[in-house]
Amino acid sequence: MVRIIAFLVGLFFSGMLGYSAIRTGYTMVTEPAAPTAEEEFHQHVKPVSFSFEGPTGHYDRAQLQRGLQVYHEVCKACHGLTQVAFRDLEALGYAEGQVKTIAAEYNVPSLNPETGEAETRKGTPADKFPSPFANDIAAKAANNGAVPPDLSLMAKARHGGPEYVYSLLTGYQAQQPEELLKKFPDSKTGPGLHYNPYFANLNLAMAPPLPIDDAETDRKAKDVAAFLMWAAEPKLENRHKSGIPAMIFLILFTWLTYMSYQVIWADKKKH
Amino acid sequence: MSFPWANHYEPQHPFMRYMDEKLPLPRFIYNAIGGGYPVPRNLNYFWNFGVLSGAALMLQIITGIVLAMHFAANSGVAFDSVEHIMRDVNSGWLMRYAHANGASMFFIVVYVHIFRGLFYGSYKPPREVVWLLGIVIFLLMMATAFMGYVLPWGQMSFWGAKVITGLFGAIPVVGEPIQTWLLGGFSPDNAALNRFFSLHYLLPFVILGVVILHVWALHIPGSSNPTGVPVKSEEDTVPFHPYYTAKDGFGLGVFLIVFATLVFFAPNFLGEPDNYIKANPMSTPANIVPEWYFWPFYAILRAFTFDFFFVPAKLLGVLAMFASILLLLFLPWIDTSPVRSGSYRPLFKKFFWFGLVPCIIVLGYCGGSHATNGVVLVSQLASVYYFAHFLIILPIVSRIEKTLPLPNSITESVLGAPAVA
């Protein structure tokens, strides 16, 4: 009885799926999906070699400091870094006093201790990087309807990570390729948008933050990508440092267990 | 229970004798995983994966308890509290990466364990109940993993919760009230996050309970073995300790090496980058995909694209997805071949390695890909095979197959047939 019911259930599902497959195949032949501009012109991230790659990778302190500088001068006008505290910057090689100076360059929301009214004060090492906008509505209003995302986790929140950040920053093109406009006349970059083949739909609201034809742009993009990787994964060095001894221990442990396995089983195996 | 030649627990120390009289826990352990459990001597490395599944469960429980001390189950702060664990809690990054990758490791070893059972016919009598309990554990694991993935409240957490609870909405008439009841609202929000956290903490202990039943049920007939030939004499078996504790120790070492490689050197390799973006109900990710261990089932769900008379495609997909797992419960009665082990079933073996295994891999690939027409077509064809394999091919193969001669005993399979005098 079980087998008969199972057989019928199997016939039903397989039949349904077979029928669907024929219809899908028919649709594919009769109405092939039209190619899209994204499919043909979207580009994969450019390969970049960073110091933190590989099992012994570590951050390049000087590069992170330069990256912070780029964030400070360019990105912070629109993008927050709200998961990162100023005190964390000591990991970049800054002394306590330097961290205090950097923190003081940012204004953080606060309450007046006398009146209780909302105000801003200078940042301290205990504060986190503030968001440049009071809320998403203010962010939208100031940016043509688009909310600039927080950058704290950006280097982990996109396929390609820091390489994606680098590719996007260096990938702007002043003009769309002629071939694209010829093939997809509807895909002309709209007003207030900027053509960048590394962005998912090829056009993004962010104007090129680094000048397109500038000798410094490539280095700055690399530096800020490395800095954002640190911001997203500040414990990467601890992870690598504890990983190596852990692996050595586990390999020794496994070798010992293998040897004892062989010894214990010696008289039970075929010789 | 067990075989007459099993070693007997004989406490030496007066304290152990006292314990044995008052609460014979050491005796229980001795008979379960110690010298008192005789096990076939010919088990191959596929038999390591039961113990490894238990180890993975314990790892998940331990890291999970620590994470729960620092996590805040509130949709307003959950995402930030996970980042707090990653940045400010001592070794918090280790706990979270171990827990996230531990889930993947748990599914890897459980999948190998299930496929071992499928190939060697471990589901056949007298071990049907062991198999049924195993499927129950698998279902509980899937529920637990799904709810755990919602907790960090990233984009995939939110949209995954929305899609999966939306499946219940496909049930006619009562579907939508059920979906609202499950979520505590019309869309995933704080109520859903809170109950998922509560259940995510509860279910692992339910799993642990069913694991104990699974092992208990196993100890009544004893472990199966790669030949499928039952144990006939004392020389066919070895005591679990020290023979299999040593072998499982080695297996555990290899497991931990793979696990540590992921945790320390590629912790986000198996994860989806979108989940590092805070949940945003106003912005749908381009490609909503579950974690890799759900991909084959997700492919089956998405393979139904056409309505069948009055039954909508979505409902068919949901039914097929549940059926694809629940059909495993009937396997002991669908496969009627008298030979247990796939090694002695030439036709079964071909369908297993050239049919079922590639079919699952293809389904997994499709489930993780963007659902273009081509991907949907391939998953439809693979799903046809999936259902046909278990429900149509298997019973026919069991009936028509000419099986190979079995060895006379387990010992003979290891040491060779005794020379004819």
Describe the structure using short key phrases:
heterodimer, A: mainly alpha, B: mainly alpha, two-stranded antiparallel sheet, 16 helices, 2 strands
Notes on the protein architecture:
The complex is a heterodimer of chains A (271) and B (421). Chain A is extended, with a radius of gyration of 27 Å. Chain A contains 9 helices and 4 strands; from the N terminus they run ααααββαααββαα. Chain A is mainly α and 271 residues long. The longest helix of chain A is centred in the C-terminal third of the chain and has 30 residues. In chain A, the strands form 2 sheets. Chain A has a two-stranded antiparallel ribbon with strand order 1-2. In chain A, strands 3-4 form a two-stranded antiparallel sheet. In chain A, a hairpin with a 7-residue loop joins strand 3 and strand 4. With 421 residues, chain B is mostly helical. Helices cover 63% and strands 1% of the residues of chain B. Chain B is built from 16 helices and 2 strands. In chain B, strands 1-2 form a two-stranded antiparallel ribbon. In chain B, helix 3 runs antiparallel to helix 5. The model of chain B has no long low-confidence stretch (mean pLDDT 95). At the A-B interface, helix 1 and helix 9 of A face helix 4, helix 5, helix 10, helix 12 and helix 15 of B.
